[in-house]
Each structure stands twice: as C-alpha cells, then as structure tokens.
Amino acid sequence: MARDDNQLGSFLRSRREKIDAASAGVVDNTRRRVKGLRREELALLAGLSPSYYARIEQGRDRNPSREILEALAGVLRLDDTERAYLWSLAMPSLVPADSDALPAHTVRPGVLRLLERWADLPAFVVAPNRDVLAGTALSARVNPAWSPGHNLIEFTFLDPRARDVYPDWDEIALQAVAGLRATVATRRTELDGFVASMRERSETFRALWDSHDVYERSTGEKRLAVDGLGILRLSFETFALTGLEGHVLYLYFPQPGSPDDEALRGLA
Fold this sequence. Notes:
- By secondary structure, the protein is an alpha+beta fold.
- It is built from 13 helices and five strands.
- A five-stranded antiparallel sheet has the order 2-1-5-4-3.
- The longest helix is centred in the middle third of the chain and has 16 residues.
C-alpha cells in the first residue's frame, strides 16, 4: 500500500471526525450524514476561511502558521501528545532531529546493573521502535515478548501467541499503535521505515495506524495470561531514560498482598 504523503491532512481529518458537532457549538437542524465536524465548520470555529482550511487538509498548503495550528488544536481539543504530533507534521524543522549515529541498541551499564537488582519484578528496556534490549529473567517468564530479541509491536500483531498472552488484545493493540505514533513525532527518520514495514505486514496494524490515534500511557494496569498461573494483573510505570537513544524502562509490579503478588513471587 502506498505511503500517505499527506499525513497532516489525514491527521486533521481523523480528529475532526471525532468531535461531536453539538458539543462544539454547531447548531444544525438538518439530519447529519457526516461524522464529527464538517470541514467548513472546523474552519469557521478556528477563525479560518473554509477554502484556506480545505487547502491544508488536502495537502495543498503544508506550512500553516503557529497561530493557525494553535487555533485548530484548540477546536479539535488535542491533548499535549496530539499537539506535539501535530507540530511534528506541520513544522518538522522545529522538532529535534534524530541522529543515525546514535548507539540506539546499547543499554547503559548502570541500567543493566539496575535490572539485575530487580530480579523479583518484570522490568525491561525498549528502543524507540519497541525492540526489547534488556530485561530481567522474570520478564521473559511472564511474557515471551518481554525478552531481548523481541519487538513489542511485531509480537502484538504478527505472533499468534499474542492473543493468548493478552486477554485484552484489542485494547493492547490500539494502545501500542497510538504510543508508537507519539514516538514517531520526535523520531520520524528513525521510525518511518519500521512503520512502513508493519503496514505491509499487518492489515490490522495498518487500519489502526490509519485511524491516526496518538497518545501515550506511562502508567496503568495490564492483564496477562501466564502458563501455570492463569491471569496476572500487573500495574506498570514507564521511565524515559535520559540520553539521545530514546530508551524507555518498563517496570511491572503487583498490588502488595494480592493473589497476583503471591503468584509472581512464586514464579520468581
């Protein structure tokens, strides 16, 4: 499938289709047959001429000003992650460039020593493309994807074990793609090839990617099916490691005193 060369327009269109017209203040007594806001309605709410906004969405004007972007973001109710992604599409020159010379798959020795101290918890480090670079032994026992040599995105969409490991697979898949799109906002050169490859290899990934959802979950809870233990409920926190490599540390843990805590201790 050909790559979308008008990603700014596609993103804006996907966001306006999610806005409820009535809640945005649009009075319309006709029977609406479109999702969300019409193109001209978004333009007027943002203080733009409909013809000028049409040029932006159609890819005929790819350099809207900072003020126009802010106006559109306000009407579309974009959160911080979505705003950063919008900026990366419209003004990539203002986004820090990624470097091809970075040792992207080398985990710092201090981080490796930290993982050794966390032998009783699933913890692992991933690269921007979601390659797992290092992890505790317990990580691989809880989830085969959480071990070096695996890629979280590829596992989710291409490995048949994923639907067994993730009881909430649909939600996991949506979050994985939305989070990857957020990372692409600041590391486009590094990740464009990976995204193109996944679009070719997975129809489901392609459909989710083309929905243009973008957000990050830095904390939450995940259910995992573990052989011999059943369903484990683990909370998680993510930590961006300082440095140009863009590494992120994932740490999973059970609620103290819960059956999940007891089961995880037994597995460790």
